[in-house]
Write a structure and sequence with these properties.
The protein is mainly beta. 0% of the residues lie in helices and 43% in strands. The protein is built from no helices and 10 strands. 18% of the residues are buried.
Length: 123
């Protein structure tokens, strides 16, 4: 029997674990013993090498679940350009003004932080 203290989502638990045998001990550990974490989704670079003067930024950390525009699309103010999932809620990201999409800087599935530039627009 081994005792562990585990913290999950800010809650601490004292856990007792019994060795049932047949498991992998610490001395048997090699990096290939356990599955590796999935590779992170890379952020896309600015499309067509142009960047607009208006930057649409992420208001919070989350995951991009949809991109609604492409480079060259004309957009009006308050047009939904992306959908960001944060805390299991989908949030529509909108343009602040009218213009043309100059670059799309993220891919669907990408993790973003607060303030990351998602899309740029040229007036």
């Amino acid at each position: 029997m081994r005792n562990f203290r585990v913290t999950v989502n800010g809650n601490t638990y004292d856990v007792t674990v019994e060795d049932a045998g047949g498991g992998v001990s610490n001395s048997d550990y090699t990096p290939s013993t356990y599955a590796s974490a999935p590779a992170p989704v890379p952020k896309a670079s600015a499309s067509k090498g142009t960047e607009g003067n208006i930057k649409v930024k992420s208001p919070m950390p989350g995951t991009i679940v949809d991109i609604k525009v492409s480079v060259g699309d004309k957009v009006e103010a308050n047009t939904v350009v992306a959908v960001l999932e944060a805390m299991k809620m989908e949030n529509e990201i909108v343009t602040p003004s009218t213009g043309t999409v100059a670059s799309v800087n993220v891919n669907k599935g990408a993790s973003v932080n607060t303030g990351d530039v998602l899309i740029t627009i040229t007036e």
